[in-house]
Amino acid sequence: DINPEQEIVSSEAIPSEIKNQLTNHITIHEGSNPPIITGYYLLKPLTTVYCSDYGYDVGEVISDLYIYFGEQNKWQIDEYREKVAGNIGIAKDVVIVGSGKDFTAYYIVEEYSDYDNDGVNESYTKTSVLFSGTLTQYGIEDAQYAFIMLEAIDPLNKIMSENEFRIFRDGDGLASTSSAWGYYAPKRVLEKTNFDINTLTKDAKKYDE
Question: Cα angle vertex 90, ends 21, 162, to 5°?
Fold first, then answer.
């Protein structure tokens, strides 16, 4: 078996120079026996903890965050999806560590959006994400969500700069379990390795329910 914590250190999931800064603001769990977190969850209200780029004020509430963790096999989860403010993010090969009910998941999310819904001003981002919490029968307690901007294609200059990071938490302390939410990218999009903004955006719109 792989050692999940060793794999994380050597991966692009969290740049080492930024990890030290993150630990001042987010709980990062360790261990090789994480809980099974497969399912749908809702972070509401999504509340700002810290932004290195001062994009939001501490305590500021932003859009609800819907997340989905796919099938889990010990330290690996095969799929992750998120929806926030109408944008969808997708990831594969999530690595999760932890012990007992406590866990931290690490993954790379590729996200696209169309500001004007005109197929022209589309943006693409690649972010490194950490998600921490404690699994309970009602959802994920003390849910914390952080992302680091790794790459950005932004025609309208509305996206945060590369290597900046933001940290949020569920404002009421619990990311509750949620029913399946309806905005999906097609399966073949998840299998793409080279993301084409035009193709992704047009395909995703067909699946907007």
Answer: 40
Per-residue pLDDT reduced to its tens digit, 186-197: 333 333 333 333
Distances (CA, A) of 70 to 79, 82, 113, 162, 180: 5, 11, 23, 28, 12
Q: Which residues contact 78 (CB under 8 A, 6 or more apart)?
A: 70, 71, 72, 92, 93, 94
Phi, psi of 185 (to 5 degrees): -90, 150
Task: Tell me how far apart the alpha carbons of residues 140 and 200 are, in angstroms, rounded to a whole number.
Answer: 31
Q: What does the CA dihedral 44, 45, 50, 51 come to, rounded to 10 degrees?
A: 90
d(CA 107, CA 79): 10
- Tokens coding 157: 């200059």
pTM exceeding 0.85: no
More confident residue, 111 or 56: 56
The answer for residues whose C-beta is within 8 angstroms of residue 112's C-beta and 6 or more apart is 87, 88, 122, 123, 124, 125, 195, 197, 200, 201, 204
Structure tokens that stand for 189 in this block = 């999009």
Nearest to 41 by CA among 107, 106, 132, 127: 132
Residue type, position 85, single letter: A
Cα–Cα separations (whole angstroms), residue 203 to 20, 127, 168, 206: 39, 21, 30, 6
Q: What is the chain's length?
A: 209
